[in-house]
Amino acid sequence: MADNVPQDLKYTQEHEWARVSGKIVVVGITHHAQQTLGDIVYVELPKLGAQVTAGDSFGTVESVKAVSELFAPISGKVVKVNDELVASPEDINTEPYGDGWLVEIELSDAGQLSNLLDAAAYEKLIKE
Amino acid sequence: MTRRTPLNEAHRKLGARMVDFAGWDMPVQYSSLTAEHEAVRTAVGLFDVSHMGEIEFTGPGALETVNRLISNDLARCQDGQAVYAGLLNDLGGFVDDVVAYRFSPERILICVNSSNREKDFAWMNARAEGVKPVDKSDDYAQIAIQGPKAVGLVQRLTKSDLSQVGTYRFTEGEVAGVKAIISRTGYTGEDGFELYCAAGDAVKLWDALLEAGQPDGVKACGLGARDSLRTEMKYALYGNDIDDAHTALEAGLGWIVKLDKAGGFIGKDALAAQKAAGVPRKLVGFELTDKGIPRHGYSVLKNGERVGEVTSGTMGPTVKKSIGMAYVPANLAAEGSTFDVDIRGRAVPAIVVKTPFLKKS
């Protein structure tokens, strides 16, 4: 379903999404990822101010059955963390592109954005 | 080759997510694991457990033959009664955990784990002194109906008086016009039945239960919910919590070991010796006291040293806590004992608690 892959976002091969506005990038996991994981019960996110590196793990998300690493789409500093997820990790299931966002990262290198997939490429990836 | 139960198509029609489970193509969940879990705790859920194996002993001496193979005592049971038991190796570890059904002293049916079916059959066949086992697994399908509304649902579909079928008792009758063994057993901690029917009747029975259960809010439930439900009850899972390397006493299953039964059983001498010497490690139930989820294979730490291993763990959907089971040294097994669980490099504190985790009101 096309509306489960918003056209205005960028994506990683590991099923994170990135909403870019200027130097700030909001990061979450995709509808497809949350559906595959099932009911999410616990999220481990980096601390405010932490430096993350593109392609490296910056946290974990756990469903009842599985643990999944979260991979940073881009490098930069964590400037906002979705603390609400501690109390309601299920937001990732219900609103993966809304209240279920994970962190905001301040970009250190805008050039890295070109390494991300656009919506069409991501749709193709999850259909494979 | 992947095996399929007679209900495989039915699961796909319901939109189940299918996974490989010990060589079987099985539904892990249909909608949401927690919704399915809650349906079983508050209403009723259906499970396809046709992948389980059924091995039969028929003929004079069947009871005596089986009773030497299993750790529990079927001779003390009445006809129409079932027991949970271990098939134990010479060291008192598990070849498998099973449910043995006594139809009569000359007909015993043993339900075994799907992953152990061939192993169990060969093991029994080699050790059966007297009656030889027959693998009837392909003849049977099995559907579990579990939850507070399970008894009412099944009763509406059968003329058998289920009020006469107590826990771990069974009867033979018809459910929705399908000939079935109606067994008041299960693996969820809720009341309910496990129905054994001919493989060819499974779809008819499954559909009838789903339809008749609509007013009860019946849900088809997958292996995911089955695992979280049994974990909240601290029911052991072969391959996780019990195996050939841990004895029945270490697993806390001394109650299915009848050391004094006439004729003895395989593994008895080792268990008697261990009981006399003291059990060195025990399977305990614990809760995490900080955030995280314990999982199979994680290390148990005491003062930074690895002293044991988590065998099962989950976020309990009903108890709403991170719970698990672990083998720990006997000196850490008492209720209130504390240790850490190594969750991907983080030492998360845990406390041994009384089980089952789910306390029934």
TrEMBL record, chain A:
Function text: The glycine cleavage system catalyzes the degradation of glycine. The H protein shuttles the methylamine group of glycine from the P protein to the T protein.
GO CC term (a single one): cytosol
Quaternary structure (record): The glycine cleavage system is composed of four proteins: P, T, L and H.
Biological processes per GO annotation: glycine decarboxylation via glycine cleavage system; protein lipoylation
SUPFAM superfamilies xrefs: Single hybrid motif
Species the sequence originates in: Corallococcus exiguus
PROSITE patterns: BIOTINYL_LIPOYL, LIPOYL
Keywords of this entry: Lipoyl
Any matching Pfam family: GCV_H
Modification N6-lipoyllysine, positions: 65
Top-rank lineage group of the source organism: Bacteria
Domain Lipoyl-binding as annotated: residue spans: 24-106
Protein name: Glycine cleavage system H protein
Free-text cofactor note: Binds 1 lipoyl cofactor covalently.
InterPro entries reported for this sequence: 2-oxoA_DH_lipoyl-BS, Biotin_lipoyl, GCV_H, GCV_H/Fam206, GCV_H_sub, Single_hybrid_motif
Record carries keyword Acyltransferase: no
Cofactor(s) listed: (R)-lipoate
Family: Belongs to the GcvH family.
Automatic annotation (TrEMBL), chain B:
Occurrences of domain GCVT N-terminal (ranges): 8-261
Pfam families: GCV_T (PF01571), GCV_T_C (PF08669)
HAMAP family listed in its UniProt record: GcvT
Function noted in UniProt: The glycine cleavage system catalyzes the degradation of glycine.
Record keywords, A-Z: Aminotransferase, Methyltransferase, Transferase
Quaternary organization: The glycine cleavage system is composed of four proteins: P, T, L and H.
SUPFAM superfamilies xrefs: Aminomethyltransferase beta-barrel domain, Folate-binding domain
Domain Aminomethyltransferase C-terminal, residue spans: 281-359
InterPro entries xref list: GcvT (IPR006223), GcvT/YgfZ/DmdA (IPR028896), GcvT/YgfZ_C (IPR029043), GcvT_bac (IPR022903), GcvT_C (IPR013977), GCVT_N (IPR006222), TrmE/GcvT-like (IPR027266)
Any single GO CC term annotated in Swiss-Prot or TrEMBL for this entry: cytosol
EC annotation from Swiss-Prot or TrEMBL: 2.1.2.10
Organism, scientific name: Corallococcus exiguus
Catalysis performed (reactions): N(6)-[(R)-S(8)-aminomethyldihydrolipoyl]-L-lysyl-[protein] + (6S)-5,6,7,8-tetrahydrofolate = N(6)-[(R)-dihydrolipoyl]-L-lysyl-[protein] + (6R)-5,10-methylene-5,6,7,8-tetrahydrofolate + NH4(+)
Protein name: Aminomethyltransferase
Transmembrane segments: none
Binding positions for substrate per the UniProt entry: 194
A GO term for molecular function: aminomethyltransferase activity
